Amino acid sequence: HPLASELAGALERDEVTLLFQPQFAADGALYGAEALVRWDHGELGKLAGDELVLIAQGSHGLSELARGLTDHVLRRALAAAGAWPDHLSLSLNVTAADLAAADFTAAVTAALADTGFDPARLTLEITEQAMVAELDRSAMRLEELVALGVRVALDDFGAGFCNFRYLKKLPLHYLKLDRSMVQGIAEDRRDLEVLRGIVAMANALDLKVIAEGIESEAQRDAVVREGCAAWQGYLGGKPMAAGDFAAL
Ligand code: G
Ligand code: G
Ligand code: MN
Ligand code: NA
After folding, report:
1. Which residues have any ligand 1 atom within 6 Å of their CB?
2. What is the ipTM of this complex?
3. Which of 88, 122, 140, 189 is 20 to 30 A (C-alpha) from 78?
4. Going by CA atoms, what residue is nearest to atom 20 of ligand 2?
5. Which domains does the chain have, with CATH numbers?
């Protein structure tokens, strides 16, 4: 990728930063935050996580740069979260390439050990797309991570392929509802019924549901009423700098 060497330099100079979006429990208490990576390229503006992953992975997927980006996020996020009250959790996004790396579990173990962060407070978010290629290997890697005490969330549920096989095969703790699943719930009966069905299925599978993209009080009230365990979205706060989250 044409920006790969620039990104490598930015990582070295510690110019790749993290934002934290607050997550709230159903009762309204602050529950934790999702870390979202940003790189202010200057000329090209602020680049978000999905773009950075494309740059870092290039055509190889499992590149050294992708490993470097993930390790940077892991260490920076755990360092920031180490200063939070210890009932708050931290969520990180990981890719299929991260899970495919033979030493990913070792990297997470080392980062947890170096920071002293309680594994039970760490959730790794995986997307359905991330799983498609290598479901068995991903499942195996996730089992290793769960054995460390780490939690696993299936992210963006309801967007994309929505393959229910993942719910059967992967060791999951949370289902994160894509924002397209919550947008219409306050007005549209069909949207509400779809949400209701998913929450019932999730609960039967002992999965907690986290609703994403909550922008209005009506949406928040609906997901709480329907049994979602937690929510995040612009209503509760946009992704913010570590210092702003610590103040919150
Ligand atoms: O807030 P934002 O526009 O950054 O999120 C865009 C996308 O990038 C989301 O799908 C999010 O899951 C992904 N993303 C954000 N941060 C990271 C990260 O640190 N690693 C990976 N792999 N993906 C990320
Ligand atoms: O795919 P993932 O869920 O990891 O990505 C989260 C993305 O959703 C980020 O880009 C984040 O900035 C964005 N986001 C978070 N809350 C809201 C919201 O309430 N509304 C909208 N439109 N986007 C949101
Ligand atoms: Mn996510
Ligand atoms: Na999502």
Report:
1. 36-37, 48-50, 53, 73, 93-95, 239
2. 0.95
3. 140
4. 213
5. 20-34+86-247 (3.20.20.450)
